[in-house]
Amino acid sequence: MIVEMRIYHCAPTRLPALLDRFTSTTLGFFEKYGIRQIGFWTTLIGASNHALTYMIEWESLAEREEKWNAFQADAEWIAKRAASEAERPIVERIESHILTPTSFSKLR
């Protein structure tokens, strides 16, 4: 198992719009494509409270490539994402980290 940690750095005041998009739209597409979330977090204390961090569980890099690419190419997803940003952009920058557990990790 590998874990992908994604951090979405939002434009000021746009975190609520991103949270709404995940709740009402994105999670449905994750389910459609079999993308398994571990959890989602907002920043309580840190450099910025305009960020959403989440983690996804993958069996392999091949699974990630197959499922993530299918999700990203979905015409309905593309249209809904664009509609959610019609007023103004939500996300300024995205970080993605592919993590592999150590031998002493509880999560493997």
Automatic annotation (TrEMBL):
Residue span, NIPSNAP domain: 3-106
Pfam families: NIPSNAP
Family matches, as InterPro entries: Dimeric_a/b-barrel, NIPSNAP
Record's keyword annotation contains Nucleus: no
Keywords annotated in UniProt: Plasmid
Protein name (database record): NIPSNAP family containing protein
Lineage of source species: Bacteria, Pseudomonadati, Pseudomonadota, Betaproteobacteria, Burkholderiales
